[in-house]
Amino acid sequence: MFVKPGESIVLKCNTTADNSTDFWLYLTKKNSPHETLTEGVDVNNHYKTRIQITGNTRNGEYHLKILNFTRQDEGIYRCITDREIMPVDVYLQMKGVFLRSLVFDIINIIKCM
């Protein structure tokens, strides 16, 4: 999924289990250690100004809202519930970053010639 810089985005996580504990995890790169962003509605102190849990948690909605998306927010986000078997993975990438970087590199190469 592509996200524009500065945009806010909501990642949806629904569970059918009553009284389940939902976790949002963030994995910066494949096979890297993860960070726990939320446990239920409790947000990790490090991220309190950047993320929120939205949705009706009584109905099993634990949506992750990321505010003011930056390049540092790129990566895999995973929703895991204690009663569901399959986690929900979403890969977020900043829209247009690769192309702008490539154009900038080409311009610098041309200047050096």
UniProtKB/TrEMBL annotation:
PROSITE patterns: IG_LIKE (PS50835). Residues 1-79 form the Ig-like domain. InterPro entries: Ig-like_dom (IPR007110), Ig-like_dom_sf (IPR036179), Ig-like_fold (IPR013783), Ig_sub (IPR003599), Ig_V-set (IPR013106). SMART domains: IG. This is Ig-like domain-containing protein. It comes from Mytilus galloprovincialis (Mediterranean mussel). The lineage of its organism: Eukaryota, Metazoa, Spiralia, Lophotrochozoa, Mollusca.
